[in-house]
Structures are given as C-alpha cells and as structure tokens.
User: Which sequence fits this backbone?
C-alpha cells in the first residue's frame, strides 16, 4: 500500500515515466501501471488447482452431505468418516486433508443454498391467527405428567389463548379452537397451521393438502380459511409468532413445574396467566396486548349461534365388570349393560356414554393411562344381590375418596348393620342409595340425618323424610315438634274397649 502511494506521488510531482518509476522503486512495469490505475493493490488470486484424485468422488461427497440434512445431528458425516468411506467403499487414493478442505467448502455452499431469509410482516386486525401444540410437564396429584398445550395467537394484537390437554388428538384440537374463539369473542379470517394429523390427512406436493373431513366441518361452521406451512423445520418461520409464544409462556408462567391436584386446576392457573398477559407490551410496540386487542376485536368474524361439537365418536364393548376401555383407561357403566356395545362421545376433559341415544354414564376423562374410574351407583343392583362385596369394592373406595359417600352414609350403614346384621344393614344402605337417583343426594342425606336422630334405620322412613325436606317449610311445620320416645305415652287399649262396647250396643 505504501509502495503504491510513493509511486503515485513521484509520478504526480516529478512526472516520471513508467520505466523511470520501475527503475526507481525496483518493480516491474506492470506493478507501476497497477499503482497508477488504482491506489489499492489488486487482490490475490487463488489458483484453482485440479484435483484428479478427488474429482471422481466430488458428487458422492456432496450427495452424502445433502442426505445428512435430514439425519439426526449426532449421526451425520464428519470429514474423517467421509474420507474413510471413500477409501474403503470406493477405493479412492486421496489424502484426508484434501477431503477435509473440499468438505468444508461444500458445507458452506450447502448452507448458503438452504438459508431462508425472513421478511418482516405487518398484520391487519382480525386478518390472521396461528395455531400450534407445545409440550409441557406438570405434577398432577404428585405424578410428573406430560401434557400438551394448545395455543392460538392473533397475529395483529399478539393476544393468545393457552389450554392444557392430556392429548393432542382431534377432540383436543377442536376444543382448543372453541375455547379460543370464545376467549376472543370472535373468529379470525384465516388461521395458519403446521401439518397436524387432526387437520391434514395427507401432505401433497407444494401447498397441496388432503384435509380431514371433520376439520373441514369445523372450518365451515366458524367460517374461517386455513393456511398450511411448509412441512418440517423449513416452515417453522411461517408461523413464528405462535412458535415463540409457546416458549415465552412456558418460561414465564410454567417455571417451576406446576404442582396441582387436577388438570382443571392447572387450566385455571393458565387462564389467569392469559389475563395477566393482557398488560404486557411486546418488544417494539407502544401499546399493551390488551389495548391492541380492543382495536382488533371489532374486525373478527361474529361467532355462530351454536358452538361446534368437538366430540370424537367411538364404539365400545362393555366387559364383564361393567366397564368400557377408552384410550387405555377404564370407565364404569350401569351393570345391566354388561357385554353390550355402547356409543361414547369423547371430549378432551370428559366423556359421555350413550345407549340407544340416551346418556347412561358421564365421567371425567382420565389424565393417566390405566386409570380405573368407577361409579358406585352403577353397581347397586348387583350389590343388592351380593351385599358382602360392598365393603371391599373399588367403587365404594372411589366414592369415599370423591366425597360422594359421606360421613352420613357411613353412620347410617354402621347403625343399620348393628340393628339388621351385615347383609340386612348393607341392603338397607343400598335401598337408600337407590333413592338418590330420583331424589338427589342432598334430600336423601337430609332424610338419613332425620332418621338417625330418631334412632331409625328404615329406608322407607328415609324416603318420607327426604320428601319432607324437599317441601317448602311452612309456619305450621315449624310449630310441630315430634315427641321423643321418652315423652310418648304408654300404649293403651282403652279406646279400643270403648269401640267394642259401642259396637255391642248397636
């Protein structure tokens, strides 16, 4: 650089010729001409040397590197492994250093060809939303449970709804949409998806998709359009808003790992966090999420009059224990339906069992596989014939745990067994439990309380007292007090004797 400067100065100040400058500075005349043409020396050219030993194998190396793009990161070719394969499988006689240099250049070229440049976008209010599922973990009743979080995010305002499910099956996918539309009080005009099985049956070339028929029904019901991203990591940037939202929400609101009793309790926490997020301000914006949503809400489509039915319809056979198996968990049905085939409407958080179009059982959907959920009422007729099975039954233990079998039931059962024996007392309890089908548990518990206070264990008296508790209380009822056994007069036949005398006189 300094030599070029001196030659240019000598030419400018002294007017030396090219030959004179070459002689003074001991350089070739070509260098003098280059210095006079430009103050910057020309860059060095790297000669392209022929590689006769590697040449026949360049296409093979490039093919291996391209195939590696779809392989696990820890099971891709290294330069040494490529050299070893060329030597052993293709008989190449080439140095490892030569292979290393070529592989490094190929990787740079492949990276440039596969790079995706993203372009910042603006979104019209109500125009678009993005949907995805993300993994999360929570301790539910002390058990570390893997769950799935459905997320729908409005692209314009950034407002999102998060719901945790035990599955990412179609019923959860649909239920998430219904909850999101109700949360937003409207429907976005278009929703972006990846290629979830709940929506896409088959991915075709390009953007072509064969969509699930039930998903088409959902889309038609709410009147929105769908857009499917490029499969795999290459299309992740096409719904980057919801991708980033899943990670942000998880780090902000689900760390440390939540410890809850039920999935419903976890979703209550998540719902409260959604409301808290309305006050946050997204980086680069001047208004909060809630303020932006207030401007976006009028642009959303109006909700239809009736919500979409998100249930998955299943057909299940009842086993000899009066149970059906749904997604690897067992649920009881009335015992008289054993060995029959029933219809199940499966929702993300519950299920309904139907026989001839009539609902015969309802259950909260189990979170853990292998769960057994039994309702004591379903087995009462069988227990009436086999009262000895009552005390150790799983259905009774679960009824106690849930609070359906109360301390009043326990006291009535103990009193009945003391008076009537184990079998008779248990049958009396079962008759009382059968009353709950028609009168409801509150009235029957009131009836048991009244009979226990009077020292009676008769199911018929329980029914009378239960009906009495359901009638409106009048002043006359409150004025009547029933005497205790100590206050009652001794039985007498005096009135009966008078009737006999009067009858004889006639």
Assistant:
């Amino acid at each position: 650089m300094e030599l070029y400067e001196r030659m240019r100065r000598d030419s400018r100040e002294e007017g030396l010729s090219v030959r004179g400058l070459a002689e003074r500075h001991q350089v070739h005349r070509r260098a003098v001409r280059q210095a006079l043409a430009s103050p910057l020396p020309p860059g060095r050219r790297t000669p392209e040397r022929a590689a006769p030993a590697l040449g026949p194998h360049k296409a093979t190396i490039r093919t291996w590197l391209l195939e590696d793009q779809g392989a696990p990161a820890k099971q891709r070719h290294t330069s040494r492994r490529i050299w070893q394969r060329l030597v052993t499988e293709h008989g190449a006689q080439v140095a490892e250093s030569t292979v290393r240099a070529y592989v490094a250049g190929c990787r740079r070229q492949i990276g440039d060809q596969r790079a995706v440049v993203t372009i910042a976008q603006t979104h019209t209010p109500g125009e678009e939303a993005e949907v995805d599922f993300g993994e999360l973990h929570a301790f539910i009743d002390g058990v570390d449970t893997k769950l799935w979080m459905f997320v729908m995010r409005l692209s314009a305002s950034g407002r999102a709804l998060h719901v945790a499910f035990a599955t990412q099956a179609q019923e959860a996918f649909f239920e998430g949409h219904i909850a999101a539309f109700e949360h937003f009080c409207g429907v976005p005009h278009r929703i972006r998806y990846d290629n979830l099985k709940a929506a896409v049956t088959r991915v075709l070339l390009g953007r072509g998709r064969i969509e699930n028929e039930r998903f088409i029904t959902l889309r038609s019901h709410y009147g929105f359009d769908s857009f499917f991203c490029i499969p795999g990591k290459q299309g992740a940037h096409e719904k980057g808003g919801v991708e980033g939202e899943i990670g942000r929400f998880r780090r902000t609101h689900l760390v440390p790992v939540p410890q809850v009793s039920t999935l419903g309790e976890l979703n209550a926490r998540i719902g409260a966090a959604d409301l808290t997020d309305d006050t946050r301000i997204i980086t680069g914006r001047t208004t909060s999420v809630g303020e932006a949503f207030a401007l976006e809400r009028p642009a959303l489509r109006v909700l239809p009059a009736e919500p979409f039915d998100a249930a998955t319809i299943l057909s299940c056979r009842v086993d000899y224990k009066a149970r059906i198996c749904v997604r690897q968990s067992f649920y009881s049905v009335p015992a008289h339906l054993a060995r029959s085939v029933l219809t199940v409407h499966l929702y993300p958080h519950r299920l309904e069992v139907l026989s001839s179009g009539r609902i015969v059982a309802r259950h909260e959907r189990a979170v853990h596989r292998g769960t057994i959920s039994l309702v004591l009422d379903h087995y009462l007729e069988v227990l009436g014939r086999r009262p000895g099975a009552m005390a150790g039954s799983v259905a009774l233990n679960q009824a106690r745990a849930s609070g359906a079998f109360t301390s009043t039931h326990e006291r009535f059962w103990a009193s009945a067994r003391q008076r009537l024996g184990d079998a008779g007392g248990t049958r009396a309890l079962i008759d009382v439990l059968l009353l709950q089908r028609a009168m409801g548990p509150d009235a029957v518990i009131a009836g048991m309380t009244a009979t226990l206070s009077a020292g009676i264990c008769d199911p018929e008296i329980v029914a009378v007292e239960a009906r009495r508790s359901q009638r409106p209380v009048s002043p006359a009822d409150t004025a009547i007090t029933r005497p205790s056994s100590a206050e009652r007069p001794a039985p007498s036949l005096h009135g009966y004797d008078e009737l006999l005398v009067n009858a004889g006189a006639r």
About this structure: Residues 407-439 form the longest helix (33 residues). The chain has a mean pLDDT of 85. The two ends are 152 Å apart (CA to CA). The first strand starts at residue 128 and ends at 140.
